[in-house]
């Protein structure tokens, strides 16, 4: 850990408390792209900011994952009309700007600049900050046999941090490529990354993330013995 953000005294306090150890990196990672929807990546939306650089960095990481068949799971916050206009979701009373994230609207569409593959990449729709809360994400990662989660997305201080905390609490080591997460303001983002690095996961460079994903063995070709036997073939 570096003491650059809050000073040497804070660094020493965290070091003495035993925070900041490196996480174990498994050999079967998954990438979770949190809420890189138009309502968050475009500053024309009240809830958004210009996250073009984050989208570009995340796209690079996703493309690096394809040869090794590393799963990429996208998430989106989306509310029904009744939820968006009513009082059933307590979070919307605190953050009314999110009421624009209505199911079927352009605001909840995955940013078209991302290389999402419809029909191949999974999409998790959520109502809260964490991609794990109230969703099947933990079960999906377990079902896919994943042992590490690489978290990208927005916002760093909100849904990304909440997802990271729940990921490690669900038993998954977490990596966060700094270039692949973004926020509306620098201060909250820096504070969240400091906290993640101290307690929950490793904040790493994009190059490190790409290298790690690229080191995952490519899936083996189907065994000839598993091919359907056709009439006329010898056994």
UniProtKB/TrEMBL annotation:
Pfam families: Isochorismatase
Gene3D superfamilies: Isochorismatase-like (3.40.50.850)
Residue span(s) of domain Isochorismatase-like: 30-208
Keyword Hydrolase: yes
UniProt cross-references to InterPro entries, sorted A to Z: Isochorismatase-like_dom (IPR000868), Isochorismatase-like_hydrls (IPR050272), Isochorismatase-like_sf (IPR036380)
Keyword Hydrolase set for record: yes
Keyword field: Hydrolase
Domain of life per record: Bacteria
Protein name: N-carbamoylsarcosine amidase
Origin species: Streptomyces hygroscopicus
């Amino acid at each position: 850990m570096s003491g650059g953000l809050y000073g040497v005294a804070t660094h020493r306090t965290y070091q003495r408390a035993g925070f900041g150890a490196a996480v174990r990196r498994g050999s079967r990672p998954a990438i979770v792209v949190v809420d890189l929807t138009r309502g968050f990546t475009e500053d024309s939306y009240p809830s958004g900011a210009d996250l073009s650089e984050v989208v570009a960095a995340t796209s690079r990481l996703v493309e690096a994952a394809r040869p090794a068949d590393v799963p990429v799971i996208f998430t989106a916050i989306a509310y029904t009309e009744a939820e968006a206009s009513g009082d059933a979701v307590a979070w919307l009373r605190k953050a009314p700007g999110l009421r624009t994230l209505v199911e079927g609207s352009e605001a909840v569409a995955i940013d078209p600049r991302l290389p999402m593959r419809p029909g191949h990449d999974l999409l998790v729709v959520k109502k809260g900050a964490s991609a794990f809360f109230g969703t099947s994400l933990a079960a999906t990662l377990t079902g896919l046999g994943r042992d590490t989660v690489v978290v990208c997305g927005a916002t760093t201080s909100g849904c990304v941090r909440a997802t990271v905390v729940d990921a490690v609490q669900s038993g998954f080591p977490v990596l966060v490529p700094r270039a692949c997460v973004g926020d509306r303001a620098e201060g909250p983002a820096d504070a969240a990354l400091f906290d993640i690095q101290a307690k929950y996961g490793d904040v790493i460079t994009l190059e490190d993330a790409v290298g790690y994903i690229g080191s995952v063995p490519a899936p083996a070709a189907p065994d000839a013995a598993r091919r359907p036997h056709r009439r006329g073939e010898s056994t």
